[in-house]
Structures are given as C-alpha cells and as structure tokens.
Amino acid sequence: MYLLIDCNNFFASCEQIFNPALRNIPVVVLSNNDGCVIARSKEAKELGIPMGAPAFQYKNLFLTKNVAVFSSNFTLYADMSQRIMDILASLGFDFEIYSIDEAFLYVPCSNDYLKLANTIRNQIKQWTGITVSVGIAPTKTLAKAANKLAKNATGVFLIDKPQNNHPQLAKFPLEDVWGIGKKTAEKLHQFGLYFVPDLLAKPDHWIKKHLKVTGLRTILELRGKSCLELKEDTPQKSIIRSRSFGTEITTLKNLEEAIASFAASIGKKLRTHRLKTSNLCIFITSNRFKKSPYFSDSVHIHLPEASSDTSYLINQSKIILHKIFQENISYKRAGVMAYELSSETALQKDLFHLSNTMTTQKEHLSKVVDQINHRFGSNTMYFAAEGIKKTWQGKPLSRSKQYTTSWNDIPRIILKNS
DNA sequence: TCTGGGGTCCTAGGACCC
DNA sequence: TCTGGGGTCCTAGGACCC
Predict the structure, then answer these.
(1) What is the DSSP string of A151-173?
(2) Of A84, A110, A156, A329, which has the fewest Cβ atoms less than 10 A away?
(3) Protein A58 CA to nucleic acid B2 C1', in Å?
(4) Is residue A72 within 8 Å of A11, Cβ to Cβ?
(5) How many whole angstroms separate alpha carbon A194 and alpha carbon A196?
(6) How does the average pLDDT of chain A come out, rounded?
(7) Pick from A96, A182, A86, A88: which is nearest to A140 by CA?
(8) Residue numbers in A 223-252, CB below 7 Å of strand B
(9) Looking at residues A347-368, what average pLDDT do you find?
(10) Which nucleotide has the shortest C1'-to-CA distance from A339?
C-alpha cells in the first residue's frame, strides 16, 4: 500500500507554530513581491480566500477580517520540511519526497495501516508541531484521493479496495483527481462526466483516444492497478531561476544584473549537486497584465563545454541576452534556465574548445566563493556583474524570522514569576 | 501602484534518413 | 486522374504538479 503524507496548510502552519498568537486566526503567505496568496490557514480558507489570489485584490478583506499576512520565508519552510522528511526516512520504508510538504511511503504489508498512519501523524505533530494528513491506498493516485478525503475527516483515510466504491469516491470530482487538471476536466465535463465513477465506466479505448496515455494511466490507477511506482532518486534535468521584478526594468544594464544574479544562483546549485550544464536559455518578458502589447522572447544556446563556473555562465548569459534585448520596453520578468545537466565527473570534452588551466582555475575560484559564503553567510561574496543594489528586487513587507536556522532568531521563552 | 516560482512528462509536427 | 513507405530524432508547446 502507498501512504501519502501531506502537511496541512504547510507554509501557514510553519508561521503559526512559532507564533502562538497566530493560532486560530486567518493566516496567509504571499509569493515573491508579496504578489499572490500561496498558502492559507484553515481560517483563511473559510474566509473564501482562493489559492493564487492576487494580494492587492484582497487587501480590504485582509484588513477587515484581521488576516495575518506574511511574505514567504522559504528558509524556514525548507528547514521544517527537512525535519519532517527525516522523520519519515527514519521509519525504514521506501519513500519518495514528492514536494516540499508531501511524501509517498510504500509499505508492502501491515496488519493495521490506520494505526501506522496515526503513529506517523502523532510523531510528526509532537516533534515538529505540524499536522499532517495521511491517505492510504493500493496506488499513488488513489492515495492522493484518500489524502484529500483525510483532510475532511480525521486526518487519516484508507481506500483498501477501489471496487468497494467508497461513497466518498462516488462523489469525488474529476478535477480533484491527481493528473486531471483544469483543461482535461473541462473536456470531460463536455462529455457529461463529473465524478470518478463516470470516468471509470468508460472503456479504455475511449480514454486513450481522448486523454492519451497519461489519462489512461490515471484511470488504471483509480481502478486499483498500480502504474506509478515510487520515483528513484533521479538526477534533476533542469534548473530554473526567474523572478518577476518589484520595479520594472527598462535598461540593458539592470537587466544584465538580474540575469547575472540568476546565472550565479544556477552555478551555485550546479556545484552543490556536482553537476554541469551544457544548455542555457534566457527569457525576458514585459508585464502580461498591462494593456500595452505583450513582449516575450527567449533564446537557447548550446555551450561548447559543460560548465558550472559562475563567471562563464554569467558571460554566456549576457551574450544571449544581447541577442533578444529590445529598447523601449518595460521588462517585468526574466529568467535563466539550464538544461542538459550532467555529472561533473563524467563529461564529454569538446575537441575544439579551448579548455585550459584558466578554466580550471575559474572553476576552483567558484568553489572557493561557495566556501566563503557558506562560512560567513550567503552573499558575503558575489560577482560585481550581479550589481550592488539589485533595485529589481522588491522588499518583502512582513517576513517572519528564521527561527530554526539562525542563532539570532531562535525563539526565547521568558519565564514569569507567579 | 499591485497578479509566483520551479519543475516533469507527453505529443504533434518538422526535418531528415534510406 | 496520378506524386511511397517506414522510420528516427529533435523541438516547441501544452498540460500537469506543488
């Protein structure tokens, strides 16, 4: 059986744990530039604040309903996530970290799955303060559905045999099925299909024709035939760094600095994972919400030799940027993507590319910069090309402290003499 | 004034081959 | 009238996920 463990309202819960005054009141966490709502506490959901809602449209509601609004604090969330994943890993079952707040466990046999799930729940709650829901089922897709049902029940839900036709599954909307998104759901609605049993009644060839192989896989999984196994710890295939700018950019110089920052960040991640990239893509866009004509362009290049050296990646990124930059445009968003990642130890050298001691020295330099930043704090050293002011970076309005990763921010308990 | 960021997988269609 | 058949590889774009 598969167990899907999913943290409830994860980012909002992280905020509530370290600030007791936030418990039982609506809390939302916003995306970069405090743009959209990306997490809501139970109380915030009850107020009808949707996921992804633009914050400015809900400003009044936040005020009148005393909603606690936070800028995102990924350092905190990532650390809390790690603690939870460590607990799951310690159980000794095969498991797959699916996202920052979710993991699948594969438990081949157990006398009492519900008891096991409750033990896991209690332990995570006690050790981290986070409440999780557990869905248990013979396939991953059913475990996702069970998890959804668990959230509305006691926190644990078991679908042992799909053919038992749980009454909850009979009214399970197709758009809530893992793998069926907005577009597919709309398509199915046109055929008069709304709930899981409606789709299960269709023959395989109908599914294959309209939903392709991915759709067929989903249906088989819903019928209890496992098609999706736990994913091995496969190496990453691409790395993306992109941002919407707090202040729109109009000059090439500022855009170069932003792109250089993204390239530097990619370089660091590549080195951390002992990878190199041999394909870069740069993209720049104007504001898609504005009435003025939308501008968007991107270019890929194949690097003559794979690299993880920041100075090289910055240089190459700049060269590509120059190919697509146009004057008199207000740029709202840009990004750098790295593809064709390969292990730094198993690399194909380019016969005609000048790979010399200079290259080796530069790579060494990047690693030294990493070590310095690791020891003295990130951004202690960075490339001048990234710019000093980073004017494009918006300032988060209300970010919580780094309670678990910074000595200065560790919560203090004050004992009062009674 | 104000609308996120980071990923994966699949398919259709073009280019190319014999 | 009429213009093969079978295959691979690559890429852009769509759909999905959190």
Answers:
(1) HTTTSEEE---GGG--HHHHT-B
(2) A110
(3) 11
(4) yes
(5) 7
(6) 93
(7) A96
(8) 234, 236-244
(9) 73
(10) B7
Instruction: Give strand letter and number of the nucleotide nearest A101 (CA to C1').
Output: C18
3-state class of A134 per DSSP? Answer: strand
Q: How many CA atoms lie within 13 A of A333 on its CB side?
A: 18
Tokens coding A50: 């949707």
* Euclidean distance between CA atoms A378 and A272, whole angstroms: 14
Which residues have C-beta within 8 Å of that of residue A298, sequence separation ≥ 6? A281, A282, A283, A284, A324
Amino acid at A418: S
| pLDDT, average across residues A265-274 | 96
- Give strand letter and number of the nucleotide nearest A175 (CA to C1'): C16
**Could you tell me the pTM of the whole model?**
0.93
Are A252 and A334 contacting, i.e. CB atoms less than 8 angstroms apart?
A: no
**Distance separating alpha carbons of residues A29 and A38, to the nearest angstrom:** 6
> CB-based contacts of A132: which residues, under 8 Å, 6+ apart?
A5, A6, A7, A8, A84, A120, A121, A124, A125, A155
How many angstroms separate the CA atoms of A115 and A128, rounded? 20
Structure token digits, residue A238 = 């691409």
Phi (first) and psi of residue A314, to 5 degrees: -65, -45
Query: At CA A58, angle to CA A53 and CA A59, rounded to 5?
Result: 135
Select from A355, A275, A282, A272 the least CA-distant residue to A314.
Answer: A282
What does the alpha-carbon distance between residue A64 and residue A235 come to, in Å, rounded to a whole number? 47
